[in-house]
Write a structure and sequence with these properties.
Enolase-ppase_E1; Rossmann fold; Transcription Termination Factor Rho, Rna-binding Domain, Chain A, Domain 1; about 45% helix; binds ligand L4RZE5RM; six-stranded parallel beta sheet; Enolase-phosphatase E1; binds magnesium ion; two-stranded parallel sheet; 8 strands; amino-acid biosynthesis; alpha/beta
């Protein structure tokens, strides 16, 4: 039996990445292990860069320290000892699967070499590129809201298994605008977009994120992909297994 389409007249389609456009497995089996493997060498070559020190400072704060100095014993990362202490904290935060801004910033910087060399090619589900193109041609604006940093999002969509999808995207949001589980973050996104909340439809694999978006007045859709974590109370949101089930441009009942 054909799945029932989800009809929406939303003008802006806001997409999550992990578990929505792309498989959780790619992130956990390829992207995160890349960081664990390459971090020490990355720090060896890049520890003096302002962007790396800025991420390290945020990692220290996100980890409950008052400063970088409290975490690594100095205000910079010039010594091997400081780099090792930072590495230990990064691994601790990754083991805890923190979606913290500093960790995501540093991960994005480490992934850059992987995406540019071709070691990493971002997974997207088969129908995703075609649907994104179709939506864009129909006049919809496509944007990303992910815990992955904006830099990482651009690398990701610029280097997918289906080629460069970045030109299809009109904008990006990450946790610098706020947590994906807080309604206020979606209100800020709507303010940035300069539209009404119900002109935006948010697609995600996580009910807590959709609850927050719905509270802010956005339309929401739960994306069910193989390997996604089981969600509690999913019935609050319409759901789909493929982007092809989203029927755009039709009257919305929201
Ligand atoms: C380019 S995003 C890499 C994956 C990642 O780090 C992440 O946290 C994705 O989380 P999402 O909010 O997209 O579910
Ligand atoms: Mg997700």
């Amino acid at each position: 039996m054909e799945p029932h389409p989800i009809e929406t007249s939303a003008r802006i389609i806001l997409l999550d990445i992990e578990g929505t456009t792309s498989s959780v497995r790619f992130v956990y089996d390829e992207m995160f292990p890349f960081v664990r493997r390459e971090l020490a060498e990355f720090l060896d070559h890049n520890a003096g860069k302002e962007a790396v020190v800025a991420a390290a400072k945020q990692i220290a704060l996100d980890g409950g320290k008052s400063s970088l100095k409290e975490l690594v014993g100095s205000d910079d990362l010039s010594t091997e000892a400081a780099q090792q202490k930072l590495t230990t904290e990064v691994i601790r935060q990754m083991d805890a699967d923190l979606k913290a801004t500093g960790l995501k910033d540093l991960q994005g910087q480490v992934w850059e070499a992987g995406f540019r060399s071709g070691d990493l090619r971002a997974h997207v589900y088969d129908e995703v590129p075609g649907c994104m193109r179709q939506w864009k041609e129909a006049g919809k604006e496509l944007r990303i809201y992910s815990s992955g940093s904006i830099q990482a999002q651009k690398l990701f969509f610029g280097h997918t298994v289906a080629g460069n999808l970045l030109p299809l995207l009109s904008g990006h949001y990450d946790t610098t605008i706020g947590s994906k589980r807080e309604a206020g973050s979606y209100t800020k996104i709507v303010e940035d977009l300069g539209c009404r909340a119900n002109e935006v439809i948010f697609l995600s694999d996580i009910v807590a994120e959709l609850d927050a978006a719905k509270q802010a007045g956005l339309q929401t859709v739960l994306v069910l992909r193989p390997g996604n974590a089981q969600q509690e109370n999913p019935q609050q949101h319409p759901s789909l297994q493929s982007f092809a089930e989203l029927a755009i441009g039709k009257p919305s009942n929201s």
